């Protein structure tokens, strides 16, 4: 029996969500066929696992018995990071897990299991390690094959705890600012989850306008990441042109009624204000061609320093559901835009840089900006269409968006207009699982280059 079939044998309790008893969950763990696992979380009562089946979301849920549940990690390596988060945040323990060490709670929190039903007071006494030289802490075990451990817990902000009990509009202020690499992506994924929970109909005009903003953000973040990688390897002229291009793009956004970094533009059911997205799409599309020509010519400055550095193979990218530029440059073709309305799938077709290293990722960013120019040109005539009929809301929903650094996912459950439970997944979570092998054997400068090339953000990892 296939994993999807096992999940559907459970009780249907929400859109694409099925509740499995202990026997059904065990069957899922032991099933020979596996589905891509995007994330796991807990709501204090049930543990949930989000899978992709034929590139559509499918959620399996189970009730921990005595605070424990059977671990998925023996069959799904991607579960390791999420199970450690669940243990830290909700206190639910994964039995037979590959790794039960703390991921976020490293001894400084005031409460143990802060999102659990009954959080426990903590003395908050941990072993201080000082400020890490990089935006994450690297603990390299010398003499053991260069094995690398990553420790978090310094930047955790508890946003999922803060949004409980708030309306979606109140929560969006924090959700939309989780990370600078996804102001639009996080807002859009969250709003789509809320809209599905409420049964809100969204017109094609609004969907097209949101896509314009998402592609503009993609260009902005790619320019930022190109500049950061270029600085790491001494390609300063490339960095200067990328940084200058990002500022020019910010000024264009303001001229058409959009915030500089495309913040606070997407709201449940529509858009904030009345930005001229048609004019913005047309302007950015025409502006990109000469900018990308310059960047492409200058990129050769960085090539020698990036080849074969921080390689990630397609098998590892697929096993751990690494998305975005990092996944596609390694050969995993998943792109959540293919599941979204308003995209020309021909433009999104892969165009070849599959080395899996830092050079492949930089080259693919340039290609994706070329694609963005074509997509935005196609959106330069957004037409008026009547809103779609609203459906019956069922109180919970899943939403997603393909941000510049990968796919962003949200699940929300609403009760009486406020958020009862929520979960979000930033692309940084999947990157966390593969970074140790990508930086093994590198010095600090090499680690920093790999970090920049994947666009790693601790803000996304620990929101």
Task: Explain the overall architecture.
The chain is of the alpha+beta class and 463 residues long. The protein folds into 2 domains: 3-128, Beta Polymerase, domain 2 (2-Layer Sandwich); 159-461, Orthogonal Bundle (Cytochrome-c3 Hydrogenase, chain B), CATH 1.10.645.10. It contains 16 helices and 16 strands. The strands form 6 sheets. A 5-stranded mixed β-sheet has the order 1-2-5-4-3. Helix 7 (204-232) packs antiparallel against helix 13 and helix 13 runs parallel beside helix 15 (444-454). The radius of gyration is 22 Å and the shape is globular. Residues 127-145 and 383-391 have low confidence and may be disordered.
Considering the chains and any ligands shown, give keywords for the structure.
about 475 residues; alpha+beta; Beta Polymerase, domain 2; Cytochrome-c3 Hydrogenase, chain B; 2 domains; five-stranded mixed beta sheet; three-stranded antiparallel beta sheet
